[in-house]
Description:
Blueprint: H1 2-18, H2 30-45, H3 68-81, E1 101-106, E2 109-114
Antiparallel strand pairs: 1-2
Amino acid sequence: MKTSGLLIACSCLIIGCMGKPRFPEQEKDPNFWNRWAQQTLNNAMTLQNLNKNKAKNLILFLGDGMGVPTVTAARILKGQLSGHSGEETQLEMDKFPFVSLAKVSSGTGRRDTAC
């Protein structure tokens, strides 16, 4: 009991001596973070060769009621039906290059949807 009290007292003394952490003045300005984020994004965009073509068509798959738990259950079931444990299985929609989740509310309740 004395040892833990001594450790707490020493910790308080060490932390008290250190004082508040000092941050650079520029980090207090929200514009600094906006500029930093924009520069980081611009740097990341130069690392890859982007497709500059314009899309002629767009195909949108909207799975109503396909929230994360439902899709996970389907993935596991597909794997188990093929003789595996299930978690490592991919659904065809897992291979899409882009995916989105949307939460939709109505007067009757909330629904989760995978797009």
